[in-house]
Fold these 2 entries.
Entry 1:
Amino acid sequence: KAGVTQTPRYLIKTRGQQVTLSCSPISGHRSVSWYQQTPGQGLQFLFEYFSETQRNKGNFPGRFSGRQFSNSRSEMNVSTLELGDSALYLCASSSRDGGYEQYFGPGTRLTVT
Amino acid sequence: GNSVTQMEGPVTLSEEAFLTINCTYTATGYPSLFWYVQYPGEGLQLLLKATKADDKGSNKGFEATYRKETTSFHLEKGSVQVSDSAVYFCALSGNNNDMRFGAGTRLTVKP
């Protein structure tokens, strides 16, 4: 099976702009989770989608949003970018067949200038 | 709420040394426990898992045992290699399937 793919891999944006990141889960996986990884804060949970519904949400401002499509692909959007949004954004998919192990994509490296 | 605490790094070892990275957790109910590894420039990879008490997860020479009495899931490897240099994350999945990760431990193995 193909793994989790994320596009783009690298992105440079200017403060105040918005950005959309994309994630394609492993075929058959219906759950997609998003994480932000920074050197200072570590790995922080953003949200999880399952069958097009947001099931869990982390403690991030409303500028961070996401959605999931009927084919399980997911996008996350960050509006009004701030310098502190510079991070590696990781997507993970899961089949939720018990144990809830997640499979991660390579991430999108976002730099806000 | 659920949480994971793992030993702070960085950890530096010589090749063939014994590795232990401590991980303890706080959770209600019966969580599943995981170790993930992240190599430079990559996403996280599942290294091993355990879904119930006394289970032992193992992979690539790494092992961890789910100890409910001590709420621990320590990662061990008998003989590390340079290629094991990476960041290791302990994680748990609770009853409502929310995932919690530890802060990560950076391991450097020197030849």
Entry 2:
Amino acid sequence: GQNIDQPTEMTATEGAIVQINCTYQTSGFNGLFWYQQHAGEAPTFLSYNVLDGLEEKGRFSSFLSRSKGYSYLLLKELQMKDSASYLCAVLDSNYQLIWGAGTKLIIKP
Amino acid sequence: DAMVIQNPRYQVTQFGKPVTLSCSQTLNHNVMYWYQQKSSQAPKLLFHYYDKDFNNEADTPDNFQSRRPNTSFCFLDIRSPGLGDAAMYLCATSRQSGSTDTQYFGPGTRLTVL
């Protein structure tokens, strides 16, 4: 079967750095997406990785290791508005998006 | 601004009473998706349209139907909502199917079944 694993919940402090991990087992791989979802709202696109390595985009960075079936999302200089769920999703060999259940990130002052 | 619009944002219906959710897009994307998302769960793909070609997920109940009368609009019909159908329904679009194109989501419709 296909599986995406992420921690259910994480807590971090305003101004700090947090790393949200995602491991996956899918039939084929055509890239990995990270989405941010605030409570009661739609997911919004953050990043897409298909090659190994780190992609940096402002305060957010995303890393991929295809050989390990592993990705992480790194958030720096945390702000209260970063409190949200972060969803990892993998495009499988049929270009279907396989979604994780999301990691709820709680930011404390 | 180009976007994905869903109406209504909140919908309340009675058990067994048909309900229709709507989605429109100004992105001129070929593909439109409907997802169901329950609290703290991953979005679950119900079906998608590539242009006018309808693709139903194998485990989508017959209670759920969809229509896409033109490129811009897509509707989700729930014929006889049950209590278990209460969820957030998300519409998304992408330029192409079978590609790495990003999916862009509308704000969602939260459905309550009484």
